[in-house]
Amino acid sequence: MTIPMRLIALLLLLSLGSVQAAGMATHASMADFGRDALEDGALKTILTAHRPALLAGAIFPDGGYGSGALVAADRDMAERAHWGDFTIQFIQYLRETGCSGEVRAAILRRPPLGLIDLNLLTDRCGHLIAFAFGNAAHGFTDQTWDAQFEPEVRHRGETPNSVEWIGQLVPQLPAAILDPLKQIYGATPMNAIEYAMDMVNIAERRLVLNAPTLVFPPTSDLVEVYRRNRPEQGVNAQAIERGSLFTRVLVQAESVAAPLEVTRMRLQMPWAAANYYTAPGGVVQSGYAVAGMYRQLWDLLTGDPARPLPPAVIGSYPGHGALDVVLEPARESWTESRWLHVFFSSSMDPASLELPGTFCLFDDKGRRVKGVVEAGSWQRDYANAVKLRLQEPLRPGERYTAVVTTKARDYRGVALARPYSFSFVTASPP
């Protein structure tokens, strides 16, 4: 493709920038990493066989933001797909409409035990299961990424704002084109960190480029899931189809833009571009946590409701054993602050997380650190996260230990099977 054609595609993406549809390829990478991190078995076999639907589900929640530029209600449709109550209704729908029964019937009762005969699983159920798991991964990784990676990027002062760079990257453009283009760049979410890392991800990992064509499950099934979750929204087949169409369009636009944009991102955001995959909240850490969430959803889909799998802690910030940690006292916005976080495999009961003694931080002398515990990240209900907003600074070069007790319960009232603790050491003075 010639540079002018790529520039045209990039301008198309810029024109859609106001819908804030960013991070799509990165979400797909996290969902796919979670699939790959699973142990061999029926779930991994299904998600691998229906990987195009898994990736579609991981991207779809942002597709509705795209169509929301045309139909305002589609933005609400997209937002609802991000949260745990939507996932819960989705899994319950799969149980009630026979997909969990299909899975149980297809799991081999002879060696190799635990594997599945895909010939006994319909494409409809395979697509729906993979899409539901990918969709859940999107909402979960929005929490891990935004709580850990993005605050670190902002702290380092890196931004994808491209106004200063357009003239260097495309010097042949006349001022009559260059000046309006600078204004477009500076005024849209093309300056979003997630979009910037998508450009690097696509150029380096090529997941979206190499993946099979996205596969969406039957529209009628998705309409019913939305109806069960929030009937007052009135999401219909046309809205689903618009969201699916924009999902495909925006993925293609990002894929075309990436070869041109990746240079700009590496110049402006060297730390982020080099670390988005392995830094806290990045693809690897979030992907391993996604695998833990997949196991929880698998039990919700195929397990005995009378013997539910307890929720588990599947990630924390800082990670256990982390060194040179910097955590900051409370600011106005958690998206710009590095706070203590814990992530769970299930949507949690926020009231249980905020009970005294559920989530605590202690110094190396056993003194409890003052702070405010808040359930959730972007929203309190049906979230997978809890955060501690410090009310006092941490001492440099000291070991701290965080504890989550069995007071923590999920939305069903099921408690953690055992307490969880992790320790870290704060940064020494410069």
Automatic annotation (TrEMBL):
Keywords: Signal. The keyword Signal applies. This is SbsA Ig-like domain-containing protein. The keyword Phosphoprotein does not apply. Residues 310-426 form the SbsA Ig-like domain. Residues 1-21 form the signal peptide.
